[in-house]
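Q: I have three molecules that I believe assemble together. Could you output structure tokens for the complex as a whole instead of separate predictions?
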Amino acid sequence: MTPEAQFILFGLNGLVWGLIIALIALGLSLVFGLIEIINIAHGDLFMLGAVLAWYMIQWTGNFWVALAAAPLAVGLLGMLIERGVLRPIEHKPIITILATFGLSLIFQQSVLATFGGAPQRIEEPIGGLIPLVGTFYPVYRVFVAGCALVALAGLWLLLYKTRYGMWMRAVRQDREMAVALGIASDQVYMLTFGLGAALAALGGVLAAPVTSLEFQMGLDVLPTAFIVVIIGGLGSLQGTLVAAVLLGVLEGLANVFVTPTTARIFSLLFMAVVLLVRPQGIFGKRP
Amino acid sequence: MSPRLRQAPLVLVATLAALFLAPAVVLPYYRIVLAEILVWGLFGMAFDLLFGYTGMLSFGQALFFGAGAYGAAYAVFKLGAGLWGALAVAVVVATVFAVAVGFFAVRVSGHYFLVLTITFSVVIFLVLESGHWRWITGGYSGRPFPAPPITLGPLSLPLTNSLAGYYFVVAAVAGAYALCYLLLASGLGWVFLSIRENEPRARLLGYNVEGYKLLAFSISGFFAGLSGALYALTSQYTNLSFFHWTISTNAVVWTVIGGTGTLLGPFLGSGLFIAGGDFLSAQVPNFPIAIGVLLLVFVLFAPEGLLGLLRRLARRPTAPV
Amino acid sequence: MLQVADIHTYYGKSYVLHGVSLEVQPGEIVALLGRNGVGKTTTLKSIMGLVPPRRGRISFNGQELMALSAHRVGRLPLGYVPQGRRIFPELTVNENLLMGVGPGVATPDALERVFRYFPILHQRSRQRGGTLSGGEQQMLAIARALVKQPTMLLMDEPSEGLAPLVVRSVKQTIRALNQEGLAILLAEQQVAMALDLAARAYIMENGLIVYAGRGEELRRNPEIMKRHLGVVV
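A: Yes, here they are, computed for all three components at once.
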């Protein structure tokens, strides 16, 4: 394989991965922009999406059912969590973070107890390769990119072209005023959290065939989501998207030169610098 | 203003007495378990100092635990140090580390601080794991190292698998606790508490909040490093996993359940989980899930933990220690 | 139309309203005067249910407001123009106005009417709220409250931070709205402006109403104004 081809290949893989991360990070950012909490269990929602997909494929043999149903199920779980666990403590940020940590433990251990500790794999639902830059690229990954883009477009439509999306944005900006205008902000919180969870789970289902499924897979994804959200700017959805894609592509390309670990180390250090120098991220507003 | 004692002296004396008399009553195996509870409890106490007192939630304390453990290992292997030397090197390394990390970390707060501490922890773990720093980590991971004897003047007593070793740990941890207690009672405790309660007001009152936070972070790192060194020396091994942030989260669980802002709470927590863990995981089928549920229950309904709850019921005055 | 009876309101542990009573009849403009921090904003927020009182009664058109959750109060024909405007900075002018409809149905002429009152908003309809000038934001805040065709408005210091010329135009708007039949409870620090508009006035001090009477009566008693408001107009 020519070096250029290798470069492009790694870059494409990075792009695909970046789009998946964008889904997860947007879920995190939606919730943070609204409720101002870092959900430590968010990575585990990604994991639950993947694991649920695995179970659904076992039962129905159909990946597409899983693709539709798993995010919905996790979205519902998200709504339950917001309503049942987080709502009473939402005004106490540190307690909330600890609660999400407790949830993370519960999710991981529950999956460990049922799914088991051994990593599993899911087959790519769409096999085959397409010719690309003198080599071949898996069709499934192209599908993932397409699917993620469709989801992102759907999210944009929801937020900017529907009334409910407008309410979500309004509640994000000034909750009290939204309530004074008749919006049931509690319900908006619940649905936003559910949406965030569903996005993470969708990322999980899409990622499942290209990575190995195990109960701690959320642990790897969470710091990446943090990086993206913080660099892009907590509360800025466009920033998160841009940061995710950039990070994915850069890490992907970096893999040509250095080990994945080193690439990861640099991303983390970059995030630390951003946190210290410009906490609102590249696109965020000054807090 | 003289700080009024919040820990009933009776409780402290009773606990200490129980620890001293324990070997007479229980099998040698339980000596080891007790020692482990104490060492991990110390780690929890380090976390409680930072979180329970100063209100800084950090998942990065494993960094300093690991630094202490590896510092001790390095001192024993490379410097041929004795017990005291190893401990000294360990706490110095851990504290320097803490000051360095803390210098940056305390500039942000809340969730940014949390993410930053996790980040540093992950970065260091990845860096060490990648093998580029073999000169520190290569030799020691997993390799059992000879525990240096306890030297007190002309006496030389074995550290591991011995009565002397047990008493050494008790003394070391009790000493660390006493040191921490004195530090907090000296007025530092009040400052930390006021930062936790109302940071902007503390700033307005003229306190250098970043400086005090750095102090809290460094002291916490000191004790975390001490606990790491003690653990490594008494169990005779170190492992890169000591640096992983999930170690930090153990301290979180023990402290939240045992009692935040109490110094003793983490010991209660570690005691419950380490001693109770063996017993309970046989009885309760999904013990780890139960831990998560228990944590959640406490966070939602009793975030001050068991000891905190007891204190609230006994209506103790709110003094720092 | 609006009756507030002996409400006691706390902000956390702070005891802010110590038993406030007032009323607004249909078609009236009533001024709520007082220095900074006496509880004017808290009174309005209590009526809207944003800071619910612990004791007392509030009724609007015969309906008990304290029995409703805040967002249900927000759906009544009671408009709220808060202190500081509080338009949604990232939403467009159009979207801000649509927020005024709440969960109801946005009738096409609802926005029409509002644009007739404030043509400049029509020009700026696609602009983000945060980019408008102070005076335009005030217009937008008022317009937003008008979209659902309320029968009464609660206005909190609409003149705050605005240039005198702009304040004059706000005043004209308020007068015009009142002439169309809108009742208005106007909390204001600018006493002169408020008394020009209002038939009746309440003065608040330390969370209590210390004076209630007609506007001219107040003007004829400058020592009352001086004592409670620190100014004479």
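A: One point stands out. The CA atoms of residues 186 and 266 of chain A lie 40 Å apart.
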